[in-house]
Amino acid sequence: LRASAERGYPEACNLLGYRYFNTDPDSMLLWIERAATAPSPSPKAFNNLGWLLSTGAGGVQRDMKKAMYWYERGAEAGVPTAMTSLAELLLDNPEITPDSLRARELLTLAAAKGFNPAGEKLYLLLRPEIDALPPDSALALGIKYFDQRVFAVSAPLFMQAATAEIPHAVALLGNSYAQGWGVPYDFSHAMHLFWHAALLGDPSAR
User: Fold this and answer.
1) Which three-class secondary structure state does DSSP give residue 165?
2) Model pTM score
3) Which of 126, 85, 82, 89 is closest to 104 using CA atoms?
4) How far apart (Å, rounded) are the C-alpha atoms in residues 84 and 190?
5) At 16, which helix (H) or strand (E)?
6) 19: burial class by Cβ within 10 Å (0-12, 13-18, 19+)?
7) Other Cβ atoms closer than 10 A to 127
8) 191-205 pLDDT, tens per residue?
């Protein structure tokens, strides 16, 4: 690993830096910074630098401005963890100007990449609005998030619409359980929901 890092391979620099996490904070920061500032940098290093600088982990001095810069770089590079961490700062950090709209966008993008913690945070953020929706609106919004593959939000919306016996909502909830999308995988429950939706007249469930 060191041989690769010393030859400038960014991913090796990033990994080597973390080998020093509990023993040598200066070396840790040195190698991760090399990974982030290389000619072809490691996007993961952007997120790691942001995390170290925002939390002070590993003995690194906290610096929120620098942390925001690196989280921004990570988000621009499409790193889901960086998007999620940046969203958290934009939602709840006294040192950062809040921006809930951008935070929602970042969490949606991160969740669409399969990063489940982002979807869970997005659902908690949206829940007051979601709980107030009528069933038809909940179904429509659920389909929107389902199409974006943000299953941590779509599944609760399908549940909400399914309580009103909307056939397609019941079928989509069955599909969520059949695939483990936003809910625990449960074949038996999925079959029960498909059967119920079919009896209600949903063609896809049949």
Assistant:
1) coil
2) 0.86
3) 126
4) 31
5) helix 10-19
6) middle
7) 12
8) 999 999 999 999 999
